[in-house]
Amino acid sequence: MSERRFREDLNRVVELYNKLHGVEAQAKIINVNGEKVIIEFTGTFCHTCGVRDWLEDLVYLLVPSGYTAKLVEYIEPEGEEAQYKRIGVFKIKRISEESNSEN
Questions:
Q1: Fewer C-beta within 10 Å: the chain N or C terminus?
Q2: How many domains does the chain have?
Q3: Which residues contact 21 (CB under 8 A, 6 or more apart)?
Q4: Neighbouring C-alpha atoms within 13 Å toward the C-beta of 40
Q5: Does the residue 103 lie in any domain?
Q6: Which residue range(s) make up the domain with 76?
Q7: Does residue 102 belong to any structural domain of this protein?
Q8: Could you give the count of Cα atoms lying within 13 Å of 98 in the half-sphere of its Cβ?
């Protein structure tokens, strides 16, 4: 998989996430380093649902684009930012690459 295509796919998925979650949650790509992707989530979220669920929703949006993903780290900033910001560190693989690495 080319890095360019991966970034294009990732940008599309983040745009879709932002469209679906509206003002309650917005995602922004902070860093891409191989399979490791860091994404900042801001918004009011729905705290009764579990804020972590808002981050994991991105994992499910990647599947139709041909990727598997796992939230490997969940960071809650301290202070005032704790109310409206979370950082998710994801490991993202193209499904065909994952199949090849198992053989």
A1: C
A2: 1
A3: 27, 43, 54, 57
A4: 10
A5: no
A6: 3-97
A7: no
A8: 12
The closest of 9, 24, 18, 14 to 66, measured between CA atoms, is 9
Report the CATH number that the domain containing residue 18 is assigned in CATH: 3.30.980
pLDDT of residue 97: 58
Give me the amino acid identity at 25.
Answer: A
**Rounded Cα–Cα distance for residues 71 and 38 (Å):** 10
Question: pLDDT tens digits for 24-73?
Answer: 899 999 999 999 999 999 988 766 567 778 889 999 999 999 999 999 99
pLDDT for 44: 84
Where are any strands of DSSP class E within the chain? Answer: 26-33, 36-42, 67-75, 85-94
What's 53's DSSP letter?
H
14 occurs within a structural domain: yes
Q: What is the mean pLDDT of the segment spanning 7-22?
A: 95
The answer, yes or no, to whether residue 13 has pLDDT greater than 50, is: yes
